[in-house]
Amino acid sequence: MASASFQGTKINPTRLHRSQLPFFMFLIPFATLMILPILFIFNHAFKPRSELFAYPPRFFVRNPTFDNFNELSRLVSASGVPFSRYLVNSLLVTIIGVTLAIFITAFSAYALSKLKFRGKKLLFEINTLALMFVPIAVQIPRYLIIARSGLIDTYAAHILPMIVMPVAMFLIKQFIDQTPNEIIESAKIDGASEMQIFFKIVLPVIAPAIATVGILAFQIIWNDVSTSVLYINDESKRTLAFYMQSLTSIQGNNVAGQGMAAAASLIMFVPNLVLFVFLQGKVMNTMAHSGIK
Amino acid sequence: MTKRMNHPAWFLLPYWTLFFVFIIVPVIAAIFLSFTYFNAIQAPTFIGITNYIELITMDTVFMQYVLSNTLKFALIVGPVGYLLSFILAWVLAQIPQKYRTVFAIILYSPSLTMGVAMASMWRIIFSGDSQGYLNSLLLNWGVILEPIQFLQSPDYLMTIMIVVSLWSSMGVGFLAMLAGVLNIDQTLYEAAYVDGIRNRAQEIFYITIPSMKPQMLFGAVMAVVTTFQAGGIGVQLSGSNPTPQYAGQLIVNHIEDFGFIRYMMGYAATVSVVLLLIVYFISKITFRILGEKE
């Protein structure tokens, strides 16, 4: 145990102490700076016309209203495709996408970590290489593949290209590496198949890694605009992110559209934030196991 | 059913089929297309290394603006964002958990505002008339007399892109480093103090960084990849591709410009291959510097 004079290890302290003051003096201004634009969006979204136009502009909202949200929904319903349609598309694509992403990456990670077969080292190397992969660089061939395979204007075009996540594979594999082999061996002796071991033993143990991948995948798929732009021509199959972007890029330039743009931004941002706040404890737990080792 | 699914193929096929279709084949196809003339309507015609020669000798926009912009952007945002992630992760580890959670959520939340949310809010803040928040502040303080066209002016666009990118750079790399710092064996520090380490600076260089090398490497690779992928930002802020006078044009925008606006897909593929090579090369250097020796 540390003696009373031992001042060095203040990592992960259990309670507040005067010596932590400098850290707070650094963190508080910095965090304030980081959160200002987000506070701004929250305030802006609820500002009535008069405050949006106010000069000099005010940061905080004084008389919050839902006008911007109402106007947004009015504009949406005038466009022919109902708002709910975009929302359902987005939810459908995101939920299916995140679920599939989690399962296919965890499956592969389990095989690369615990199963015996030839070439698994090579596969992992290729995956690590693909970490550096820049999607935009191969957008053209990807587009051609999707066009040739007849996936244009299907939900699969939203989902399939998005769920190959080398980073996720990497994180989960590192995590499964740390599951003790003894449990797996003893389950095998009891006659369990690999698939049963995966679902009954490994999956519960790697829950934190799953949470991380869930957040990452959600963030990527929910916010993605590119699949709607590139692979979808049918307006009614596009996603909320696409609609919000086209709306804000038309309306966002003038002051009148600002409140609406802020409302749209808020609608897109809040689900990410809520999910992260709920799962962050688990995520930080995961990351400790995730390094490139 | 699950009883008989014992073969590795059950686990491998879903991920690797998609990996093959959406990553490996496109990379190979991009390399092939980069040697062709292809306008997306007629079949590609093979033209050898003409595209590469053109890129180096004739594409003045690429050489004058795009390449230097990308390198400038990446060399500032990458390392600074990386250092910032480490410093913040380390500082967060020095305070109790309750407070840490709150700060971690605040610091991570900007990277949750990808795409739509980000663009519209920054456009309002940097709006070019006196209604813009920054302009109004500066006018108020008497720093400027006329509102500045921040997002349309080549003098400011790049700086704003860098600021916004740094603001949202506390992503996965930051979380990994935070967990890395927290996960270091406490007894290492005590042993180090017995061995004569005296202050926190020494603590960081002799214990903290070496003990979290894997997370540092992961964070670095993520920093490299995300900064080179960050192409949307200049176009989203200024509202046009190409960005005003190419001030914020990055390689990614150049690819979009040629591939999806001018339909010169062979040429765009050439630029893509060059981008892949740059990212691969820089990641290799990162591995060399931070990676463990094999």
Automatic annotation (TrEMBL), chain A:
<feature type="transmembrane region" description="Helical">
    <location>
        <begin position="21"/>
        <end position="42"/>
    </location>
</feature>
<comment type="similarity">
    <text>Belongs to the binding-protein-dependent transport system permease family.</text>
</comment>
<dbReference type="InterPro" id="IPR035906">
    <property type="entry name" value="MetI-like_sf"/>
</dbReference>
<protein>
    <submittedName>
        <fullName>ABC transporter permease</fullName>
    </submittedName>
</protein>
<keyword id="KW-0812">Transmembrane</keyword>
<feature type="transmembrane region" description="Helical">
    <location>
        <begin position="259"/>
        <end position="279"/>
    </location>
</feature>
<feature type="transmembrane region" description="Helical">
    <location>
        <begin position="155"/>
        <end position="176"/>
    </location>
</feature>
<dbReference type="GO" id="GO:0005886">
    <property type="term" value="C:plasma membrane"/>
</dbReference>
<feature type="transmembrane region" description="Helical">
    <location>
        <begin position="197"/>
        <end position="222"/>
    </location>
</feature>
<dbReference type="Pfam" id="PF00528">
    <property type="entry name" value="BPD_transp_1"/>
</dbReference>
<dbReference type="InterPro" id="IPR000515">
    <property type="entry name" value="MetI-like"/>
</dbReference>
<keyword id="KW-1003">Cell membrane</keyword>
<dbReference type="GO" id="GO:0055085">
    <property type="term" value="P:transmembrane transport"/>
</dbReference>
<keyword id="KW-0813">Transport</keyword>
<keyword id="KW-1133">Transmembrane helix</keyword>
<feature type="transmembrane region" description="Helical">
    <location>
        <begin position="86"/>
        <end position="110"/>
    </location>
</feature>
<feature type="transmembrane region" description="Helical">
    <location>
        <begin position="122"/>
        <end position="143"/>
    </location>
</feature>
<keyword id="KW-0472">Membrane</keyword>
From TrEMBL, chain B:
<keyword id="KW-0812">Transmembrane</keyword>
<keyword id="KW-1133">Transmembrane helix</keyword>
<dbReference type="GO" id="GO:0055085">
    <property type="term" value="P:transmembrane transport"/>
</dbReference>
<keyword id="KW-0472">Membrane</keyword>
<protein>
    <submittedName>
        <fullName>ABC transporter permease</fullName>
    </submittedName>
</protein>
<dbReference type="GO" id="GO:0005886">
    <property type="term" value="C:plasma membrane"/>
</dbReference>
<keyword id="KW-1003">Cell membrane</keyword>
<dbReference type="InterPro" id="IPR000515">
    <property type="entry name" value="MetI-like"/>
</dbReference>
<dbReference type="InterPro" id="IPR035906">
    <property type="entry name" value="MetI-like_sf"/>
</dbReference>
<keyword id="KW-0813">Transport</keyword>
